[in-house]
Amino acid sequence: MPLRGIRFCSFGILYLFLNSFVVPTASYTLKDCMVKQNTQVICRKNSFKVFPKDIPARVTSIELSGNTISTLNKTDLENIPNLLRLDLTSNRISKIESGTFVVQLSLEVLILKNNSLYKLQEGMFDGLVNLKELYLTSNQIQTVAPASFKTLSKLRILDLGYNKLRHLTNILQHTPHLQTLYIPANNISTFHSWELSNKSTELVILDLSQNELRFFRLTAGIFPKLKTLNLRDGIKNGIVWEVNDTSYLRSVHKLDISGVRSSLHGLQEVIETFNSSSSLIYLQLNNISNSLQALIDVSCKILKLSTFEIRNNGIKVIRSDMLHLCSYLKILDLGMNEITNISENSFQSLRQLDTLNIKNNCLKSVPNAVRKTQITKLDLSHNNINVLGCDDFSNMTRLRVLHLDNNPLVALQDCVFKDLVNLNELIFQNSSIELNGAFKKNTPNLKTLSLINNELTDLVHGGFRALNSLQYLSLKGNQLQQLKDGTFFGLSSLTHLDLESNKINEISNCTFVELKALKTLNLRRNCIQYASVEPILNPPFAELSKLDTLYISDQIRSHKRTNFPQNFLQGLTNLSILYMQTNNIKFVHPHTFNYTPNLNVLYLSDNFLTDIPDNLLRSLDFLLHANLTELEVLHVAYNTFSVIREPVMLSLSALTYLNMQGNSFTCNCDNAWFHQWVITNKQTQVFDAYNFECSYPPNLKGREMLQIDFSSCTVDTDFICYISTACAVIMTLAVSFTHHFLQWHLVYAYYLMLAFLYNSKNKDKRAHQYDAFVSYNTNDEGWVLGELLPKLEDEQGWRLCLHHRDFQPGKPIMENITDAIYGSRKTICVVSRDYLESEWCSREIQVASFRLFDEQKDVLILVFLEDIPMQQLSPYYRMRRLLKRQTYLSWSRADAHPNLFWEKLRQALETQEHPMGEHILLTAKKCLGGVRDYTTDTRGLSLWGESKTVPLDSFFCFCVL
Prior knowledge:
Blueprint: H1 3-19, E1 34-36, E2 40-42, E3 61-63, E4 71-72, E5 85-87, E6 95-96, E7 109-111, E8 119-120, E9 133-135, E10 143-144, E11 157-159, E12 180-182, E13 190-192, H2 193-196, E14 205-207, E15 213-218, E16 228-230, E17 235-243, E18 254-256, H3 264-272, E19 282-284, H4 292-299, E20 307-309, E21 317-318, E22 331-333, E23 341-342, E24 355-357, E25 377-379, E26 401-403, E27 425-427, E28 448-450, E29 472-474, E30 496-498, E31 520-522, E32 549-551, E33 577-579, E34 601-603, E35 633-635, H5 646-651, E36 657-659, E37 664-666, H6 672-680, E38 685-687, E39 693-696, H7 717-741, H8 743-762, E40 770-775, H9 781-795, E41 800-801, H10 803-806, H11 813-822, E42 824-831, H12 833-836, H13 839-855, E43 860-864, H14 877-885, E44 889-890, H15 898-910, E45 934-937, E46 940-943, E47 949-950
Parallel strand pairs: 2-3, 3-5, 4-6, 5-7, 7-9, 8-10, 9-11, 11-12, 12-14, 13-15, 14-16, 15-17, 16-18, 18-19, 19-20, 20-22, 21-23, 22-24, 24-25, 25-26, 26-27, 27-28, 28-29, 29-30, 30-31, 31-32, 32-33, 33-34, 34-35, 35-36, 36-38, 37-39, 40-41, 40-42, 42-43, 43-44
Antiparallel strand pairs: 1-2, 45-46, 46-47
């Protein structure tokens, strides 16, 4: 293996080792906070004294209102770089360190209402380069430093209301694109345009209400885009009103001068500013203490005025001449007065009037004056009207919206709405009326009908049959007990039906049969109950295939337990949201939700669902059979679940929010998986999980479940994976190292093993067929056949084994080699450079060496055809080791005495196969030192001219070529 490969694998092992000890990322379950839609964190009213540290970096919106945070430090927000909205309303923040927002480059909305800031300092908002909305309402701000808003170049809305500012300097200097400026209820007594800016601004809304202005000086046209100016309760008696040029306010569309305390002359001066060159269309003149008629006359001279509010002025009678100059009005609001009478011709001059609001007055009947208008919207709510006549709305065919709520009406005649053919919305609530067929033949275009809190006890068959266009019907808060068949006949377009807070105790499949288009049905706070979960013959919602949302919570108002039939929801194939909380349900049949495959939100909180014995169902196991693959939100808070099994949670593959607050959990190995899942899962937000309490075993009762150590219950799969991976990497390294450096060692060991097995199998029954096996390279075949073979076979009579002549055809080569070596008394290795480089020659000498080691006999004869220096044998270092322990014959040095060479070879062949260490007859040349003669004894080989003895003990030879 190359070195870089070894380094890479070593780094891989190190990475795996370190990675196994990395702390997991913050889970989806936050302590004391709730996550919505994966990006919104709500930590409302949780008594945080400092900014929480466990908020995930992916969050884009944080609400921390209602806590006790006093300081924002520059480290609080450094790990939340993606924030778009931060709400810190109602804390105790008095200090914001410089640099707190330096990483909040994306923040667009910052809310700091109801805190304790007393000064806006330089650097406080550094980093908020994309901030668009800043709310500082209800602090104690007295001063604004010159460069406080230096980085807020994109600010659009600034709210400084209810503080203690005395002037407006240093506000607009660095906010050139500010469009809305709220400064109500400060201590500003003078308004000078130069305090805000010396050049044109982009302000659209300016609120100076509740400031008791003494001076209003506009000396330059800095408000070319201003549309709304609010001076409500902000003009003090004796105000100096200086507008050098009325065109400076020519863009103002809406003006509020309600509640001012000024002389008639002062108010007239303000209003006349907008009379000539202004585009004023909306004027609020509420809560005026005196000279109201004069102000109305002045106001109605504004030619473009179309919306006029005259609320809360104590008006008791509307005279015919009171509004005669307001001929251009489209919307007139006379609400919250004390009107008891309206002259019949009071609105005669208001030919363009479209909307008339007379709510919160003292009218006892519908004024005749309204019948002479062409209005489309009429609000008569909160009066004392107790009777409606057949002519009260005669000829009002253009009327589209009618509010009659909160009047002491008792009964409706069937002719009341006879001319309201275009009526779209009718609000008729908080009375004590009887319908008396009022909707059997009138109002064909009605789309919204509210009959809330009218003490209705019964609905007649076909009572709504004329309402073919009705889409929204509310019967909330009545006394209905039973819905008869045909009650909703004719409501083929109805999409929303509200029956909350009645006394309905039974519903049948015929009740809603006409409501084919219904999408939302509210049956909360009724008395619907069933004795068992057994299927019923006629499921009530069988025809409501388009229903999307069903409210059926709070059905039982006693402590009696109830259940719902297993086919109760049959027909609701498109149901997405289901509310079934607070019903005292003790058991949910596993087939209950088989009929709602598209269910997305399920509320089952505040029931008596519990762990059913194992022979039935456990915990939430009823959800296993429902195939609720679309369920995203599940509320099962305040039940009595104790164990949550893995298959239940895994079956809810789309779940993003789980509320199990208020249950009592078993804190043993039964809940080990759930405990781990709550902490580590990144998909499902488990609300309030850090407050889950143990109910069992007794020694852990009352402790927080997430603080319990469940490690003894679970197999550490991460550690097992780490060990397995590490072992695999180490094995890969070992195999790579062995393949690169010890490949031939393994090959040699393999063949030695084969030779060993062969020898063990055949040594007792093997006979020598040859005197010697000649191991040579084919390139040396000329010498073997020309020199060696004639001498040894022809002259000396030895029988030799040659591979090209004596190997058995068809037999494996290694088997032929092994048979030849073990079938010969000796092995003659004819060594040359070609021999050393030959793979098969290498294997032949390996087997011969093993025989030498195995039998401890002198069976190996080395014949060198050429001189090979020791340093050139280094790559074949096992051959070099062999030469250091074994004598050999050299043909290259036998030129002068060839006969001696052949004689020594004959003697070597005649040497008996005695154990190593006995007397050796073979004489030869030793490669070391060039010594030509030697003697031998039992100690070893003594070389003439040398002072050392070469040992002849056994050795084990490896030869890697």
